[in-house]
Amino acid sequence: MLEEYGSDSEDTVTSQLLSKGTVGQHGSSPRQNFLVPSSVQSGRSSHPSSAAPSPVPSRSTSPLPQFRHSVNSSSTSEEESETSAPLLRNRTRRSWWTDDSRSWWGQSPRRRRRSGRLYSSLRKWCRWLFTHPFFPRQPITIILTLILLSVFTIFVTLLLMYILNPDKDPLPWRAYCFASPAFPPTNLDSLPPAGILLGVFSIDSGYERRSLVRTTWAKHVRSRNGAGDGDGGLGTSRTIVRFVMGQPRKDFERRIRLEMEMYNDIVILPIPENMNDGKTHTFFSWASLNAWVPPVYNETGSKAPVYSYSSRSSPPPALAPHDPILAHKHQLEDTIAQPWVRPDFVIKADDDSFAMLAELEARLRVELHSPPEAGEIEPYTGDPLIYWGYLVTNRLHRFMAGELYALSWALVDWAAKDPAVKTLTRGAEDKQTAKWMKLHPLASQVRWVRIDIRNSYTHGFLFPSEAQRAKDNLVPFPHQALQDALNNSLMTGGTPSPSDWSYSSVSKFGVRYEPPIPDLTISQSVEALVEGSEMSTLREGNPKTPEYAWDRREGRKTRYQDKRLGGTVVVHYVKKSLWYLETALALLEGPELTGNEEAAPPVNLGQFGLLANSTASPASSTVETSDTDTDSILRTSINQQVSSNNTEPIQRISLRDCLFERVVQRLKGLI
């Protein structure tokens, strides 16, 4: 009966008794002989413990633990030290929650010594600082110290802003006008329009800016059709504008849903709202799957080009109010809706950019159908690879500025799928996009196309007539010197360009804009923002009056030189709604012909030149002969606006005053 108790339990009880000094030599108590008869001798026995008869039952009624206690053991010392018995608890085994980690309060001696040294050093330096004679203790010294620290913080912040600011010097925009080729080309209307999806990056709270975009350049007839009579919207018949944002916040969810239901022009990306944390790549990834634009309609009179993506199509989606008029027309008239196709370009734009859609589409159309540049060893014959935008160059980077840039469809589709591109999605998004282009398998075939995008703080609103005057009036420099200035204009430490290349009649670089004179009307104040206009040259103390300058303003027909295109493409950095409305009035509104232009045609320049020579002083005649090009531009800008009926005396006085002022300036320069 006792064989069911192993030697391990005996050893356990025996060790407990030995620790208390109650071994059999000192006598055994009834507690000690609870299971073992007293006749059993202590020590080791050659007979097994099961051989001795036992009067004690094998199972006791005592509630005590059923461990056998005996001073005899049939096991050896090696067996006694074993801890693998199933009934024996391992007293040295560590708890499961301390197997692989040290307790938070338990640290190694080395770490404790290191922490103690750091704490001692910190206390030492704090004690030294607080006991220093210059440490402020009085209220006045504490206040002065806080003021000095605040001034130092502001100084460091301004210094960093200056160092990181890329616009330390004014841009030579007149040199850009000089280097820009004439636009549009003669064959533009024979080319099929380009399919464009323009994504305007927005945020959930930007409802006011989205409303301004919807009602101005995204829909306005002069933005979509161009200047003059326009083209009836044929060029922008495949241009779609959509607003792109991340997941809206809880407070804006219902408002965004209502806005989407109303306008059908918002794209919600499956990411939190951000600017440089992957939003751009997510947008291009979305576009590679869900971007569709109208096909080439028959009204355009051209045939759609054939590319690898031309066969992909999808049913037309719900239209937005500012979508092309031809798309609305075909949706109402066609019994079978024409499917939409993949776009040729996907554009990323900021919501502080003001785009003229007809100008934008025309330039992308020309690039889409242009052959690769001459001189390439292996001309590319696949889908166009075009990276289009405002090129920014500095010592470390070369990229298209993030206010607006376009990628052709082949680049969009590749960027959405390439694994290496997916690792370059965080950081300044415009710089990251440039890195994608350098990773393309055919990076040498990617065309980086530069376009001039006007910043709102660089100069006034620019029209083709003033650009032509700037081109004619610019002092001719050697071609290589001009090209170097264009390339180095944005490089830190580059050669500074002549001041004439960046001169603006509207604003002065680095100075907050103020109207030329106070108390101008709204129309006059907007006219004063037009580069080269008579209104922009008004100054306090000048005898020229606002009414005189207003009567001699140019109409849109004159400003666009009787062309449909050729003006400003994009205006950037229109941060305030007030500036946005001013931009819309300057670029989209205004008469085709002013009152003076309707009354009579411009005066013949040759006749007016003879009249000026007969009335001017000899000194003025000398200056006019030496500065023929400059004065001819001046006379042209005056005579295009003046009637020959009742303003001839004013013409003579105006030219004479201008020539006299030029003589005075020349003499001051000589002195």
From TrEMBL:
Record-linked InterPro entries: Glyco_trans_31
Biased composition regions of type Polar residues, renumbered to the chain: 25-41
Disordered as annotated region, ranges: 1-86, 533-553
One BP annotation, GO: 4,6-pyruvylated galactose residue biosynthetic process
One MF term in the entry's GO annotations: hexosyltransferase activity
Keywords: Glycosyltransferase, Golgi apparatus, Membrane, Signal-anchor, Transferase, Transmembrane, Transmembrane helix
Comp. bias regions, Acidic residues: 1-11
Stretches with biased composition (Low complexity): 42-65
Superkingdom classification of source: Eukaryota
GO CC, one annotated term: Golgi membrane
TM helices/strands, residue ranges: 140-164
Signal peptide: none
Topological relation to the membrane, as annotated: Single-pass type II membrane protein
Compartment(s) of residence: Golgi apparatus membrane
Family: Belongs to the glycosyltransferase 31 family.
Designated name of the protein: Glycosyltransferase family 31 protein
